[in-house]
Amino acid sequence: MIRTHDRSAAGRRHATPGRIARVRRQAVPEPRVVIALLLLLGLVSVMLLDGYLRAEVGNDQRVRSDASASEVPQGVLDGGPFLSFEGGTAHTRSVPDKTIVLTFDDGPDPEWTQQVLDILDDNDVPGTFFLVGSMISRYPDVVRRMVDAGNEVGVHTFTHVDLSYQSAARVTREIAQTQLALAGAAGITTTLFRAPYSSTNDAIDNYSWPVYKKLGAMGYTSVFIDTDSEDWQKPGVSRIVEWATPKSGKGASVLFHDAGGNRAQTLKALPRYIKKMKAKGYTFTTVSGAQATRSAESTQGAPGAHAAPGNALQSNPDQAAHRTADTATRWEGRALLAAVAVAEWTVPGLAAALVVVGIAVLGRFGMMLLLARRHYRQRNRRRFAWGPAVTEPVSVIVPAYNEKECIANTLNSLAASTHPIEIIVVDDGSTDDTAEIAESLGLPNVRVVRQENAGKSAALNNGVRQARYDIVVMMDGDTVFEPDTVHRLVQPFGDPEVGAVAGNAKVGNRNTVIGAWQHIEYVMGFNLDRRMYDLLRCMPTIPGAIGAFRREDVLAVGGMSEDTLAEDTDITIALHRAGRRVVYAEHARAWTEAPASLGQLWRQRYRWSYGTMQALWKHRGSVTDRGPSGRFGRIGMPLVVLFQIVTPLFAPLIDVFTVYAMIFVDLRASLLAWLAVLVVQLVCAAYAFRLDGEKYRYLLMLPLQQLAYRQLMYLVLIHSCVTAATGGRLRWQKLKRTGEVGTPTPGTEVR
Q: Which one of 171, 281, 403, 569 is most buried, by most CB atoms within 10 A?
């Protein structure tokens, strides 16, 4: 549940020195900050893991060819397919005559490997599978079945990279991660290894030879082949069988593939090949089985065992490739598999959600453009009028707390108003000279009302009670009006259905980078939205910088509520529920001083975002309101929740996924997609600037705004959501003002 803000003395804007000291001593981050950071870290970790599993880290697809093998012993190049380093010396062994070792690369695959295992079971023959660690992590059940059926497994690296290009640390990591995945999946490790892109002995060169020596020193047997079915080329079933068949009577280590593409031809060729070889009197075994047989022969002086020149073959090689993993390794492996399972479900799930969000966002852009155009044409056509012209005086309420830098500019701008007004300055317990400055100006029709510090809502309510006229205009103490602003703002009250009017808030200090970013946001986001919501008759917020109300309507709904931090959104929704119409007066312009630093901007938007959530939660019952007063609940509430909370929460993921796709998928395509979205936003922004008569040069800042400013706004929203979810309290915060927004003159920009 979203809590309302703290209205106690400690929660008021005027903080006590004791509280300041306590805040300074608070070195431990708030729980909601920790939660947000942990969520972000978890998401990034999951996406990095998913990308790594797809073997696209760095997109390293290099394959070395035609390198010299001058440093490789000739006996290794010409020897049998099993390479080991007993006693530090290179030895090779061949497969016994009339024996076939079926080896399979690149699995496991949930579709093809399962069918290969079915064929092996049906024909009662074993296989030796060289597994890719990332595939083991994704399909551990297939590996368990493979091992339980008596098949043998070996390491085929974790990401299927050419190890001759990798550092020693990367080689070790590729092997260790694959072993960890194997331990988690089947509770074992293995001493068998096959390098990607190196199926035969003559593939060993000067670059890869140190890798094989290192692996040999670690106790691995590197497994090569005698015959290659070349099934990956899909040459046809007959050719696969022919190419996999060894010379008459010779034994062979034979290569097939159970993953890495469509293996339909392999599945058809494999049973035919097994039957053919059995008919010729061949037997089938694993790598360990072949080594055991050959080892036994060597102890009896039989041919078939070879050593590198000048070296003797040891006669006691390891006979079993599989080792039972220790408890710690098994648990580490299971943790890896669990993390992979999370990544496998999370990333596709988020991707699907982002497709929905993307469609919704593009739909919103389209709806905003259409409705904004319709709104502009409707409100700017000749002879358009809300009703009889509103000429009676109105009350302008200026709540002020420590506004000494701005109050003079604000009151001077009001004094130039072309509409008859009274000005009520409600000094909310300022500790500077705000009230004194207001009084010293000697402006006509200005009243200064002093009160104890109680917050902005209390100041506005006091002003409403003090107002003499039926229409009240509310503004901020740092805002300046153009001379005709009040007159334009109150004209919609010529329609008796209208209960409140939103003006057009503009950023006055737009000469800085942050100011320019906010200027784009105000014109594109806020004002296009207001045009759309106006036509839909469900505008969610009258901006605090410029808004007008019927005094009797404000009093009828209980005044400006102190239940939320967004009193402007709260009162707007309350008026909707009371059956009053809220409209947008685009030509009633107010110039406000936007926060000048990122820290101040964060505090302001954090309060806005959290306050909006409070107001929506407070008025959640509006979704069941009936009749005209239920229009906001039926249309406005879903739109605000969807486009101001839900989609912005997912929006950062779009950027994260864009970076993910650039790294792990396709840099060019991802960059083009991002640019396409930027173009759509640029078109919307340009149209909004056209409607508001703004200069297009500020749009040059839009790309940078998308990369920096927008991310800050997303983080603010996420922080607000975490605060709401954890029941945190947010206090009023006073922003530092400079007073640089001066009194405007008609037809000029405020700097």
A: 403
